[in-house]
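[RESIDUES AND BACKBONE]
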Amino acid sequence: MSAAKSSKSAELAAISIGVLAIVASAYFIFATDANTYRLTNMVIALAFVVFVVYNFINVRNLRGEVDELSQNNDRLSGELATTQQSLTEAKADVEVIKGDLVQAQSELQKREDEIKKLKG
């Protein structure tokens, strides 16, 4: 899952830049005497661009993971159908074998009865 690792690093970078933007904006607004609203707006705009890029990357990674999981789900569904068909065939075979066993036991009982009649 390299996507998870790159997503974590991108998330950490986006959070760091967001925190820096908030700190810088607060500094420019409250700690300076000059009108630095233009610089503050630029910092906030840069942070917003980073946020949009991070979300784009994150959505692309998530779509890739969803596609991969969908393919895995389709493959597993096919395997399940095959397994269920094999199970149905095995159950039918067991029923046939049970019938053969009952018939063989009945035949054995008849033969044992014939042997008793011949002996007695």
